[in-house]
Design brief:
By secondary structure, the chain is α/β, with parallel strands linked by helices. It folds into two domains: 372 residues, Alkaline Phosphatase, subunit A (3-Layer(aba) Sandwich), CATH 3.40.720; 73 residues, Arylsulfatase, C-terminal domain (2-Layer Sandwich), CATH 3.30.1120. Helices cover 28% and strands 15% of the residues. A ten-stranded mixed β-sheet has the order 6-5-4-3-7-1-8-9-2-10, with helices on both faces. Strands 11-12-13-14 form a four-stranded antiparallel β-sheet, with helices on one face. β12 and β13 form a beta hairpin. α6 runs parallel beside α9. The radius of gyration is 22 Å and the shape is globular. The termini are far apart. The relative contact order is 0.17.
């Protein structure tokens, strides 16, 4: 009897993992939907259920019980445009051309998402999906005459319109490229021309969640084709600077907390330092924004339930990168430390993915092929995608796992220089060769030093050589990176 019970249990588990993904050649109306929600600048440790930071995220906490929580997800190039280009193309920066943020300074170097890039959204659109994009895009190079808005009035010009032929299959469009005034955001609607943007007197994430719910409900049939499966992206700018631009209600729980309660991580700088003061001045607002984003995620999840769509929808929540807020003496992001590089990643697919926590060293370009794989469209993945399709691994628990993730920082004017490194399940190695600076090597043992307080590079030169040889050099070759 004990043997029979064990076999029955094994069969039950096998059935759960062996549910086949939808065949990409079936009736498109039977295919799964996709809802992809991501925040800007939300670090991976800032979710309440992890117990790492005193931040309130009740909706993500509930989602974590229903999803795979990728505890080691990382942003390979933790800054806005490179992340987004890797996400959309499945390629690393040297292949997709977005080697830095898209703004007027980098425009002469061709830094923007290429019209000819074959994005995952193009694949879905060409295979019978109705697509919608809501929120921040940040993949266009601004050009003269610059759009007359606040983000374009300083020496750096950030915001730009995305014309319909550069939207990569998204037929419903309600977005902008970069606009950081969260309490009065700016958008272009689907049919708006370049100078026909409009402002909204509502907090950006709340407004975007309203539109996302409207897209899901599709009451008038004008948001998407009701006879097609859909894919919707909701790209929220908060918790991006300026941190104080949020509704007051989200600050209330943090206003009651002392600095000691908010600043328990041992790598937060002392209060009497410039970066320590910055952290204490901003952390309440940073957490308030995260709690606000969490509320909007909850509203979108609730709408999926109300519309009866949850069981046939792949739901992803993540962020483009984190933010240091003064930790390691870094004001923001674009550095290799955990507060910048590690990101939240929760993936829910009822009946196909068993909820659990997974330490898979997943990289941003892997999301493209893995999403298509989970949606039964593995045969549609372009051959020039750099990322790995982990759909089978996630559904069966079996398959090869990567031994590291690449870290990248590329000076736009010197693409063979900059910082490169790897993040393994234990170590972070960074070789810093920024232009006109002395070479510097960082080595952190995150097992014994999770807050990265000690650089071990000088103490363990052989380990530096081993990680360079066995992990970094293969990544450079694979991604077509001329850095040496």
């Amino acid at each position: 009897m004990r043997l029979l019970a064990s076999l029955l249990s094994l069969c039950s588990v096998s059935f759960l993992f062996a549910i086949p993904a939808t065949n990409g050649d079936e009736n498109p109306a039977q295919r799964p939907n996709l809802v992809f929600v991501f925040a800007d600048q939300m670090r991976g440790s800032a979710m309440g259920f992890l117990g790492e930071e005193p931040v309130l995220t009740p909706n993500l906490d509930r989602l974590a019980d229903q999803a795979i929580v990728f505890t080691e997800a990382a942003s390979n190039y933790p800054v806005c445009s490179p992340y987004r280009a890797m996400l959309m193309t499945g390629q690393y920066p040297h292949r997709n051309g977005v080697v830095s943020n898209c703004l007027n300074r980098t425009a002469p170097y061709g830094v923007e998402l290429k019209k000819e890039s074959r994005c995952w959204s193009d694949v879905l659109s060409d295979n019978g999906y109705s697509l919608g994009y809501i929120g921040k895009w940040h993949l266009e190079a601004p050009y003269e005459p610059y759009i007359d808005c606040a983000n374009n009035r300083g020496p750096n010009k950030w915001n730009e319109w995305t014309p319909p032929d550069r939207r990569h299959g998204f037929s419903y469009w309600y977005g902008y490229n970069t606009y950081d005034f969260h309490t009065r955001p700016l958008y272009w609607a689907t049919d708006a021309g370049r100078n026909e943007f409009h402002y909204v007197d509502q907090w950006g994430p709340e407004h975007e969640a309203d539109l996302a719910i409207d897209f899901l409900q599709n009451k008038d049939g004008n948001r998407r084709d009701p006879n097609k499966p859909f894919a919707m992206v909701v790209s929220m700018n908060p918790p991006h600077t300026p941190y104080h631009l949020h509704p007051d209600k989200y600050l209330e729980p943090y206003a009651k907390m002392t600095n000691e309660e908010l600043c328990q991580r041992p790598n937060i700088p002392p209060a009497n330092t410039r970066m320590g003061k910055l952290y204490r001045d901003q952390i309440r607002h940073y957490y308030a924004m995260i709690t606000g984003v969490d509320e909007q995620v909850g509203r979108i999840l609730h709408a999926l339930d109300e519309e009866g769509m949850a069981d046939n929808t792949l739901f992803v929540f993540t962020a483009d990168h984190g933010n240091c807020l003064g930790i390691h003496n870094h004001k923001t992001k674009n550095v290799p430390e955990e507060e910048s590089m590690r990101i939240p990643l929760l993936v829910r697919f009822p009946g196909k993915l068993k909820p659990h926590r997974d330490g898979l060293l997943i990289s941003v370009p892997d999301m493209y092929p893995t999403m298509l794989g989970l949606m039964g469209m593995e045969s549609k993945i372009p051959t020039d995608v750099d990322g790995t399709n982990y759909a089978s691994l996630l559904m069966t628990g079996k398959g090869d796992r990567p031994t590291s993730q690449m870290y990248i920082n590329i000076p736009v004017e010197a693409r063979s220089e900059g910082r490169r490194g790897v993040r393994t399940d234990r170590y972070t190695l960074i070789i810093d060769r920024m232009p006109k600076q002395e070479e510097r090597v960082l080595l952190y043992d995150r097992k014994t030093d999770p807050y990265q307080l000690e650089n071990l590079a000088d103490k363990q030169p052989e380990l530096v050589k081993k990680l360079t040889r066995d992990e970094l050099e293969p990544w450079l070759k694979r991604t077509g990176d001329s850095w040496e």
